[in-house]
């Protein structure tokens, strides 16, 4: 990999990893096509103990966002309160009262999915469509996040790279997780960590654990461990349905090229058609997996179906 030529590396990887046309010219699901009813039954059969784990960070004002590209933390405001009910100002009969509220948030403020309309390559979106024909001022009119509604539920697999490769369960910032690292982690975890067609893969780096301990700092957009650009073919060839990490940006930061911004996104989303999850909380699940030696589980991770959105909040639940 020539660090000085990201353009050529991206073009070569895009050509090798393209899924354009694989599911027809009208496809809007990308790799979610791998997650079929058979895979859902396989995932459901993994539930033994009934132990459940929330994989979502909180959505509140004390979050990681710092305003980059107008991404802020959620703003929660009450529209009606208990005080209004006490004072009888709500206009309801026979003494009934209630509370109501509203929230403003960028759809990628916390735990979320990147949809297929989120990233383009030279003005081209998933499946070879013109970016301007896909996402307009009205939103993503083709591959909006609502197209994934009800689909992301099946076999989840955790690769705890932080424990397998790091120190005290954490990888340092700038650590690029290669295919060799992924395979080393699978080998260390055993048979239940095998990764294949239709799986939803979760990769824990430990970056969120460090943010909890030290404060958010540059968690959003700053240096972080993550997937190496060189994993593009592995992500394509394993035929996973989706992948999520405990970091802001999924791939290693700083990126591996001298002058680049999120080059793995540029291949994974518009060419592979791969859903990417970011800022997932994998710590409690990882601790349980390490304790019982099982790294596979039932996972449900439906995005909030905001019509035309290019990304959406998610509250994933893993059940073992």
From TrEMBL:
Example GO biological process: L-tryptophan catabolic process to kynurenine
Protein origin, superkingdom: Bacteria
GO terms assigned for molecular function: arylformamidase activity
PANTHER family: CYCLASE, PTHR34861
Protein name: Cyclase
Annotated organism of origin: Amycolatopsis vancoresmycina DSM 44592
Organismal lineage: Bacteria, Bacillati, Actinomycetota, Actinomycetes, Pseudonocardiales
């Amino acid at each position: 990999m020539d660090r000085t030529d990201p353009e050529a590396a991206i073009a070569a990887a895009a050509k090798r990893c393209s899924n354009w046309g694989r599911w027809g010219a009208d496809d809007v699901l990308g790799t979610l096509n791998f997650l079929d009813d058979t895979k859902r039954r396989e995932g459901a059969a993994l539930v033994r103990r009934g132990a459940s784990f929330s994989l979502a960070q909180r959505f509140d004002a004390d979050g990681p966002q710092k305003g980059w590209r107008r991404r802020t933390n959620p703003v929660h405001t009450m529209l009606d309160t208990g005080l209004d009910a006490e004072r009888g100002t709500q206009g309801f009969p026979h003494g009934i009262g209630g509370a109501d509220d509203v929230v403003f948030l960028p759809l990628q403020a916390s735990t979320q999915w990147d949809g297929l309309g989120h990233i383009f390559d030279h003005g081209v979106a998933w499946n070879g469509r013109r970016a301007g024909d896909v996402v307009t001022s009205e939103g993503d009119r083709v591959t909006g996040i609502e197209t994934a509604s009800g689909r992301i539920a099946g076999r989840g697999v955790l690769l705890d790279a932080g424990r397998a490769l790091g120190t005290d369960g954490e990888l340092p910032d700038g650590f690029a997780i290669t295919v060799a690292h992924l395979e080393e982690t699978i080998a260390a975890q055993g048979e239940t960590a095998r990764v294949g067609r239709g799986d939803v893969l979760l990769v824990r780096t430990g970056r969120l654990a460090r943010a909890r301990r030290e404060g958010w700092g540059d968690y959003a957009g700053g240096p972080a461990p993550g997937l190496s650009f060189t994993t593009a073919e592995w992500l394509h060839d394993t035929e996973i349905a989706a992948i999520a990490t405990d970091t802001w940006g999924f791939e290693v930061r700083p990126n591996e090229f001298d002058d680049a911004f999120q080059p793995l996104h540029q291949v994974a989303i518009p060419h592979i058609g791969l859903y990417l999850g970011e800022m997932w909380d994998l710590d409690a699940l990882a601790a349980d997996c390490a304790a019982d030696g099982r790294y596979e589980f039932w996972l449900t991770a439906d995005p909030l179906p905001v019509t035309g959105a290019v990304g959406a909040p998610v509250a994933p639940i893993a059940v073992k």
